[in-house]
Specification:
Length: about 150
């Protein structure tokens, strides 16, 4: 009886250990999990003042985690932004970047300006990011986005 119990305990420990190793080795996300269209809001402060905007981000992510895409925003409330030295209530930017599936972290850079995004997937359908841009027209934003269903 004691031998049977010991053998069952040993077997359970072996299975649990094997599962822990397998789960621990698999990345949290796949490279293409960030791929798609995301929408939400961002809270921004820039050279013009504070703003609340709606944000849409479309990302194309390849199997290596390399990203190309487009971001756009529309003013909901506040000061708005600048484009070519003129005040605007909406704008869009092309971005490129990289995604690290093991941590869910991603980084984007704007192609026409100096904006840098640092973000993280919170789940396969939700992400959080910060946008920052220094220089003559500084910008800092906190962004919450949800995946748009296809």
């Amino acid at each position: 009886m004691a031998t049977l119990f010991s053998m069952q305990s040993w077997l359970v420990c072996c299975i649990a250990s094997a599962l822990a190793v397998l789960v621990g080795c698999s990345p949290a996300y796949q490279a293409t999990d960030l791929d798609g269209t995301w929408t939400g809001q961002d809270y921004t402060i820039n050279a013009r003042g504070k703003s609340l905007t709606t944000k849409q981000v479309t990302l194309n992510v390849d199997g290596n985690g390399l990203i190309s895409g487009r971001t756009s925003w529309t003013l909901v409330d506040g000061a708005g932004g600048n484009h070519l030295e003129k005040p605007v209530k909406r704008d869009s930017e092309e971005v490129i970047g990289v995604f690290h599936p093991e941590t869910g972290e991603f980084y984007l850079v704007e192609k026409q300006e100096t904006g840098i995004w640092q973000g993280k997937m919170l789940s396969r359908n939700r992400l959080h990011a910060f946008l920052f841009q220094s220089g003559e027209k500084p910008v800092v934003s906190m962004i919450e986005l949800q995946r748009v269903s296809d």
